[in-house]
Amino acid sequence: MIVRPKKKAAEDFIKAAPDAGVPPASEKDRKKIQISLTISPELLKAVDEKARKSGLSRAALINLAIHQVISSGVNLPGL
What we know:
Elements (H helix, E strand, L loop, with lengths): L6 H9 L25 H14 L3 H15 L7
Helix pairs in contact: 2-3
Organism: Leptospirillum ferriphilum
Protein name: Ribbon-helix-helix protein CopG domain-containing protein
InterPro entries: Arc_rbn_hlx_hlx (IPR013321), CopG (IPR002145), Ribbon_hlx_hlx (IPR010985)
């Protein structure tokens, strides 16, 4: 016996989802923006190890590092 949900029931289920009908937030309205980052496997391993030892997530450690560079600057020879 094949049971197929009625189309209206399926539509009602989808419309009742928590994110249904919510317009996408503009970049200005969002608290954080997801980005894509390419990183060497060796550096990623070091980041993950530091995050684990610090009790932070990978994303939290990367955010913290970026914040510190922006706030305190970075010493780059030749720049």
